[in-house]
Amino acid sequence: MQISAVISVDELTRNGADWAPLAAMLERCRTWGYDAVELAVRDPARVDARALEQALQSAGLAVAALATGTAYSADGLSFTHPDAGVRRAARERIADHCRLAARVGGFVILGLVRGRVSPGVTREQAEAWMDEGVAASCEAGARAGVRLLFEPINRYETDLVHTVEEGLALLDRIRAPNLGLLVDTFHMNIEEADICESLRRAGARVHHVHAADSNRCYPGAGHVDFGAVIQALEAMGYRGYLSAEILPRPDLEASLERAAANLRRLLGRDEL
Ligand code: LER
Ligand code: MN
After folding, report:
1. What's the pTM value of the predicted model, to 2 decimals?
2. Which helix (H) or strand (E) holds 64?
3. Which protein residue has the closest C-alpha to ligand 1 atom 2?
4. Is residue 16 a contact partner of residue 69, using CB atoms and an 8 Å limit?
């Protein structure tokens, strides 16, 4: 198992205006012992893909995944928006993420972009739109040679697909060979009766793991038993990333440094 850090390309390049902070952060991630980064990208059309490729190459870091949640939180794009034009724009945005992933590597994450059940829309309709958006995104991914991840998210952030079981049901409905499950220990701590049992049930369909403690801080800052989680993942033969998706507390640097140190210790990879 390898470790990855979630960082924001938009924030660390001041929306593309200055690449020095991103280059410095990539260098620090490598020093802290990360194998890869997970890049939050709001709109790939605004990212200089060549500059990004060069920054990654100089730091010697792989890309574990592209996070797409800010397309929803900042731009309001979602698969379940009542306006067909917004739903189409959401699908097109994810297709752009797939094209960027084809260049820099990594999965494309379908998380918050599924949206919510809007007032005046039935749950059945929202679920049908969600499935349509996921299926179209998998087709765009297949055209680009890219794999995607669907992430169950806790009930306070979305009305749709909270648990691993619901995530597996969605995978069964979509039946796309390039779609896997992303599990997030923060959401699992809220929604699953037993985190390790749910991991075992998902088995080989878990393609990526977000590692965050019960309080969304770095692993070790809360009460999730990461030793048990790692043991369960190892027993399942999981060979993907543990990707630290955490609050910047006490600050971004300290949180990522502590996440790397704690995860490496638990993985028996203490030496840098
Ligand atoms: C996205 O990966 C996620 O876990 C959400 O909780 C972000 O708000
Ligand atoms: Mn997550």
Report:
1. 0.98
2. strand 62-67
3. 111
4. no
